[in-house]
Task: structure prediction
Amino acid sequence: VTFAESQPQHGGGLVSAAQRLSVHPREILDASSSLAPFRPPLKARLASAFASVRHYPDTSSFLLRSLISNVHDLSPEYICIGNGAAELITWVARDAAATGLSLLFAPGFGDYLRALRLWQARFRTIPFSLGLIHPSAHAEFPALPPGDVLWLTYPHNPTGHFWTRDCVLSALDQYRLVIVDEAFLPLAPNGESLSLIPLVPDNPNLIVLRSLTKLYGIAGMRLGYAVGAPSRLINWSTWRDPWPINTPAYEMGCSLISNPKNYSSWCSKVQAWTATELHWFVQCLSRFQCLDTVPSAANFFLIFSKYDLSPLRLGLEVRHKILLRDCSSFEGLGTHWLRLGLQSRSRNVRIVNALDATLRALCY
Ligand SMILES: Cc1ncc(COP(=O)(O)O)c(C=O)c1O
Result:
């Protein structure tokens, strides 16, 4: 097994796709990862962020924690900054391993299993039928076996649906630890009003994860945060290396989240884009008889077909330089499924045209 083959399957494999296709990464339209398609102006921010690289970062990340805590109206002790939400998944999984049996929905985000295996945690995946997702993009939990830790993605990946509020609230009474990954929540229309962050101070068994990489379209920067009981976060800080957040990412975060007003106007802009493009895209796809979509509230959605969609995915990649997320690594899905991350309108048009041409060529 080579190093490349050993890497877990995620969306966003832009560089390796460019190598495979012998083109520059700029020529590829990557709809396999799900990021906001625009960013706040970064040039000046990057220049000042890089000016401070001579020094070690502030190990306590105090300023950024304070700025984020202002956004959520909490005290900074409840916030822990991570090198992307992915780094924090590693530490929350260590808590999960020490707490008992973890329950996770399948299909679901694969990185949770990577982290649980690292700590030799006990876990069980719970299959849920995508048919349970209501047209409003909400779903109840399927029947759950006994367990100690519940992992929720909210909205869920790869479907983009929300779990109903009643289900989530009842989980807080039922489980010793509830991990809620809100990586995509600030991109979902009215997402913030559904966040569980306000419940953290009264529920020491609740931990919420957030990512800034999707919201600001800066996946290469690696920045996320956890919101949880201060004693838990202090424990994590004794396990991590002393400088998990590099200074440019830290400075960039401080500049992007300089005050709650900026943050909420950015979220509104991104959410307006999600609402418009999701509606537009799903409408466009309804004219393709052989494709169906799963109701989503997020900036990505699942496509499925009675046909194997591998030839479609490969045709889009090879002929049109468009990447969609292969779903064969998701438990319970397979090659009849693809996940598509919304783009700007012009890029969405490019995808629809390429889908049209490729489906015709395949005679689906
Ligand atoms: C549900 C979910 N959580 C967390 C992450 C990781 O986010 P980050 O880029 O902040 O590490 C991803 C990345 O795709 C994700 O899909």
In short: Residues 260-285 form the longest helix (26 residues). Residues 84-86, 109, 153, 157, 181, 183, 211, 213, 219, 224 surround pyridoxal-5'-phosphate (CB under 6 Å).
